[in-house]
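Interim report to the steering committee. The following record documents the input for Alpha-1,2-fucosyltransferase (266 residues).
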Amino acid sequence: MSKVCCRLAGGLGNQIFQYGASLLISKKSTVPLIALDDSELKKYKAVRKNELPIYFKLVSSSIKNHSILKLRLPRMKAIAKYSDRFVGDYNFNRVANKIIPAQNYYLDGYFQSCLDQSLFDEMLEVLKKDYRYTNLGIQKSICAVHIRGGDFLTAKYSGIADVNYYLEQLAKVKELNVAERFVIVTDDKKYASEIANKMAIKYSFSEGNMLDDFLLLAQSETKILSNSTFSIWASALGYQPGCIVFAPKKLTVQDSRNFILPGELS
């Protein structure tokens, strides 16, 4: 039986984009089975693992290694230009915007900057159907601020979500008068404290694990996001009418986000 096979890479946010891409190809091709290959995650210097089962039911998915994915064929422009079976960032828009035949598909990419608004909305819709935490309420008058440190302080992300960005978004939140409490979600408390102190607000840190942080971002009525895919998906999957979202337009120095998040204000 045909399958949609996907190579998982990176942390949770990247994995959600990859799973979402797999769900879309499954929908377009009417191939019901998805095979997620997480064998490469153990090769990262930073600790990486398959986080998806914590957040999604994975109703029609299995975790299975596929040797053909090790060839990285979807990342080759010459193949992606002519083949719909090998799907990466180069050809995802073309393949996902049409009805495609039921056959094996092999996905390898990040599927972020290649998304337009229509595909992102469709991806969010299929992900929500499989998301485990759809019945959570909104925490009123709380503004969650996501500050990513660590590898996001390198040149690849320089100047995107810096102190000036947070000061600008905080001014907008204060003008709207929608937040009584600020909670910072971060992987780098030292760096986050430096920014928060310049913001001159009373704040507390989220002290939970990754799931707790994700759900806090999801449930907070107001959110100031970083350019992290973790915060993008927490916000999008947790959105309910009335939520207010501020987020950078760029994902990296080179890659922009070509879609607007639910509730996002400029």
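Residues 11 and 173 are 29 Å apart (CA to CA). The committee is asked to note this result when reviewing the revised timeline.
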